[in-house]
Amino acid sequence: MKLGRYISGISNKIKASGRDRHLLALPVILVLVFLTAALSVPVRKISQWDWSTVVTDKRGIPLRGYLSENEEWSLPVPLDEMGIWMPRVAVALEDRGFYYHPGVDGISLLRAMIQNIKAGKVVSGGSTITTQLIRLSVPRKRTPLNKAVEFWQAVQLERLMTKSRILELYLNKAPFGSNIRGVEAAARAWFGKPAKELSLSEAVVLAGLLRGPAFYRPDRHPERVLALRDRLLDRLEELSVASSDEVRRAKLGSVPAKRFAIPSSCSEAAAHAAAQGGSPGLRDRYGRIRSSIDRRMQDILEQELRLALSGLPREITAAAVIVENETGLVRAYVGNIRAGGEGPASWVDCGSSPRSPGSLLKPFAYALAFESGKLTPSSMLADTPMSMGQTAPRNFDRLYRGPVPARTALADSLNVPAVRVLRSIGPNRLLDLYRRLGFSGITKDAGWYGDSLVLGGCEVSLLEAAGAYRTLAAGGNYSIISWIEEPPSPEKRSVISSGAAALTIDILKDERRLMPLYRELFGEEGTVIAFKTGTSYGLRDAWTAAVTKPYTLVVWLGDPTGKPHEELVGIRTAAPPAVRIMRKITPQGTNWFKYPSEVMNGEVCPLSGSPRNPFCPSGATDLYIEGISSREPCRLHVMGVNGPEVDWPPEIELFLSETGSRSSVSHIEITSPRNEASYIMGSRGGKILLDSKGGEGEIYWFVDGELALPSENSGKVWWQMKEGRHKISAADASGSSAHVWITVRSGSAEELKEELPLLEEVQ
Q: Can you identify the CATH homologous superfamily of domain 350-585?
């Protein structure tokens, strides 16, 4: 600064002396300007450099670090996070006059000059921590002139920064061998711990590395490191930095035998946080991104997903996310619980991958119907065959229940009523809602999807599904879920009315669908859970979305390659871990949502779901939206010739008049092939008919785990024989399954009949 004012004064004098002198003095001014620039302190370069991105959990504990742009591990931390020993040891061994000199230590310089003259070569440079910081920030060739520039800049830097800040920057920038920069990265690489936990012995080992990172590398030269450490410890005792007892105990410590990995947990969650944290203002001054991840919830999520996979084929993996309803923050996330394994798709972040949702999205069609006043939870829907040719929808279990309330139709995930709801509200309205909910993979027009728009014939990701269900929990207000603990307030927009969201989520808390064990657990604790399962066509994806007042959870199980598996049924495979997770993370006795004022409870006819009229034999109560839901009295119960009677709509009247409808469900049983049967395979091969009786809905066949598809001509499943022993499995819509084993041999029947008494010939 003083030099700049001096140059300015010279320039003014030259201008005052006339034009000619001004021109003659121009080279002098240029030289002075150059010197000013060369000698100015590069504060920005000193304060900033290419450091590693570090993602922490919500409490600031590192989850994962990433290499810097220079391919280095550089994890800067504040001075008060470097522990009690590392700063003291560094100052004592590197620059013990650090707190007293103005940036250059004259005594050290004089001592260095004497040592160099005696040795006849440079053996000491007299550098201080301040000059070393400048050298690390602005590398120069080691010449006397450059060294003089560093000394000048060091003196200037001491006027601009505190001693603590200079020491902090130096310890964060100092190289510790290989691609390790700074004490935090060095502590984690060589001792597997943060710098604040370093012992005296460990701090001295790192200080020794500064004298020759390759020469004193602990895992390669332990004897050298041990000897240097003990010498430095003795020096610290001489300087009264450490007591004799502290030094004695420190010498008992060992040196590291290997290099540890930089923290790399919660990899998928950290990647999402790092991507969002790239925005300005979302990192602290040390480049750290404080994610919203709660380690307790993360541990629960990982533990339960691993438990859910026990006994399942190794090709099946799981993903899940927990979102805090009030804030929209992601508290736990697993994109692939088998990540890092041996599977061909173990690297896939399944939580971000589009998958078929099955019935997971049905609630949003009902929400639109409630919002428009077309339905209430008690409204009667017709679960009857729809005569629409080959495109007629069928329930997953191939059964029809006749008249059902909307509450039951949604809770039991019936397909036919869902399609009736879709056609009632219009597919374009549902498509528009999907897009407002952030379903990026739904890009075609409504006509392209048809009825499958409500039946799962589209693709969404687990994270998108979580955002949608959190919208129901947030009263119909959608905002992007966040991975940063203190993000800017997200923009909220209403995509579903608060009344419609309340009615929808009320239906989903029908816990009778839970297995008795889980239903009893929640009942004992007084906690209410709403959930919806989904199973994609062909048993490729198993889903469960669950909501309590504090949290939204979505669990997915499937094969990343898209291969079907008989085990992938939502209610059987995905619901149990979802319930266990929710039970562990939701405080016992948590209250249910407080519904908006427009949601009322009124008397209705149990059959039609409309307000009761004088002819309705009984009444019940259910929810409706004041001013929106139709309050037209029941039209089913009328006065007939012989008194009150029911006037059914035509489609239900026709259904009830038919006598061939299947009304009961039995367990699935394989009728062909027989268990432990043996088959011979002739020169032309042969096919075996796969057939069963009982079971619910569509039957899926698997041979040795591979899905067997029905013939396009007959609709029956014929399996092309292969020699060997095979497992034949059948699975129905409810998750029930049956298995038989068969043996296929090559040769003639005459040769094998004595050996195989159950031999069956297949033409």
A: DD-peptidase/beta-lactamase superfamily (3.40.710.10)
